[in-house]
Design a protein that fits this description.
Number of strands: 0
Largest sheet: none
Order of helices and strands: HHHHHH
Strand content: under 5%
Radius of gyration: 25 Å
């Protein structure tokens, strides 16, 4: 019984080592979905490269001024990226959809006014 366990363990170790050493040849053949893991950008320059910038939402001034902040909000970037992929829209449209969804969750109308019946506005 001990020989069987030892032999199986040794064979597993040899096969695992061979697969690890040759992973560059076969790893690209595995179908890995995009939604499992994708690293989000961590600076404004990376945000621009990832497509989180447009004419209406320009981040190039942040980069040119040497802004050292970490970039856009991580959670918002994930949501916008998810909208861009699932609905196949551009950055501006995904940002609009994200903002309207956030407004709806906070009981704010698409025009920006609160939906609270007690709300009084003097304009």
């Amino acid at each position: 019984m001990g020989y069987v366990v030892y032999s199986l363990s040794f064979c597993f170790l040899v096969i695992a080592t061979a697969l690890y050493l040759t992973r560059s040849r076969w790893l690209h053949l595995l179908p890995v979905p995009d939604y499992i893991y994708q690293r989000l950008p961590t600076s404004f320059a990376d945000d621009i490269e990832a497509g989180f910038s447009s004419n209406a939402f320009d981040l190039s001034t942040n980069v040119s001024s040497g802004d050292s902040r970490a970039g856009l909000d991580e959670q918002a970037k994930r949501e916008v990226q998810k909208i861009m992929r699932s609905r196949r829209v551009g950055f501006d449209e995904a940002r609009r959809i994200f903002t309207e969804d956030r407004f709806a969750k906070n009981n704010i109308g698409s025009d920006g006014r609160p939906r609270d019946p007690k709300f009084v506005s003097f304009s």
